[in-house]
């Protein structure tokens, strides 16, 4: 039986405001418009953009350039032709969306990353949100790097673990302090009846720096009672470009047996979509029963699974090793080019990394990142400005990502135009260079 409430003849009507373009705006929309206007005034308003195929890609996470790879395209078509699979998955994995193909793929990926088991999710966001929402139990702690991904934060908000504590980014010393405070404050933790999950990323997407993972694991095992510390690593930006055959940082460091769970995503270096949570068979079974993003959504389509299979085939047979090596060559070259800039006009307006990144991601902090990004886009380079709230206040930057499809001349040209932008900006700010510095830089170019 349905319940309906008849309209009241004299009930007040919503106040609908007519806009200049003739459209109407409801009261809720007016409130939302004010929030958008606030972001516009703060220069933090987000908008969708369409990438130009004519620009040199220094922005996307397609680190191995597999999205344009003839080898990957051929592998996908061959797998699709021989597997005789349907197109749509048909539903949730718990209903009609599961298949032997999906489970074999999970097992093969887990074996490649030297993990006992794995569970596929539609995205890395779904995997993180689902994992952190259901795995930590009442009385447990979640200790996380302050720069951890938004998906982990969303999962933590839904978690039954009320104790959620950040530590300073990549600081083993601060992590030790937080863990010691947890032990001191919790009798159940001291008695081994509650647990601490430590959330870190292998590569942090906004700065490109690596977690000091071995030191993190060592301090967790040293401070917490035995069996109470569980390190969880998000390998989204390391997959394909770090570790043997692109297995990731955990495998690079030989920490497979000391890590509780690992997330690998397929939408970056592997040019697909979806993700896998690597874990024990018991955790896999638990996630199947409790991870809501898995339970209540239609599973990935078969073409998506085929693309994942094809990408991993390239990793497994070593096809991507030369691509990853070229990316590392570009990283070294770009770092040298950036660090060779000595003009005050540049060094005052652009803050470049002090150490060569161990990943393809460079954070170029700038006084006017949106201006720099627009200038570089006009010169034919696809780059993006990243501003708060995506990054902390005072750390606005242009994020530069290198790809196997880039060339050394392209990276040199990128730096040349960064310097030209800085010089133009300096003229308006009263920043000058000495004659000797100008002549030195002109001779080097």
From TrEMBL:
Ranges for domain Aminotransferase class I/classII large? 54-415
Q: Give the Pfam families listed for this entry.
A: Aminotran_1_2 (PF00155)
Keywords of the record: Pyridoxal phosphate, Transferase
Q: The organism sits in which domain of life?
A: Eukaryota
Tagged with keyword Transmembrane helix:
no
Q: What segment(s) does the record annotate as region Disordered?
A: 1-23
Where is the signal peptide, in residue numbers?
none
Q: Which GO terms describe its molecular function?
A: pyridoxal phosphate binding; transferase activity
Q: Name one GO biological process term.
A: biotin biosynthetic process
Cofactor(s), names only, from the UniProt record: pyridoxal 5'-phosphate
Biased-composition ranges, Pro residues, are 1-10
Which SUPFAM superfamilies does the record match to this protein? Answer: PLP-dependent transferases
Instruction: Cite the InterPro entries for this sequence.
Output: Aminotransferase_I/II_large (IPR004839), AON_synthase_class-II (IPR050087), PyrdxlP-dep_Trfase (IPR015424), PyrdxlP-dep_Trfase_major (IPR015421), PyrdxlP-dep_Trfase_small (IPR015422)
Q: Where are the transmembrane segments?
A: none
Protein family membership: Belongs to the class-II pyridoxal-phosphate-dependent aminotransferase family. BioF subfamily.
Q: Which PANTHER family match?
A: 8-AMINO-7-OXONONANOATE SYNTHASE, CLASS II AMINOTRANSFERASE/8-AMINO-7-OXONONANOATE SYNTHASE
Tell me the protein's name.
8-amino-7-oxononanoate synthase-like protein
Organism of provenance: Clohesyomyces aquaticus
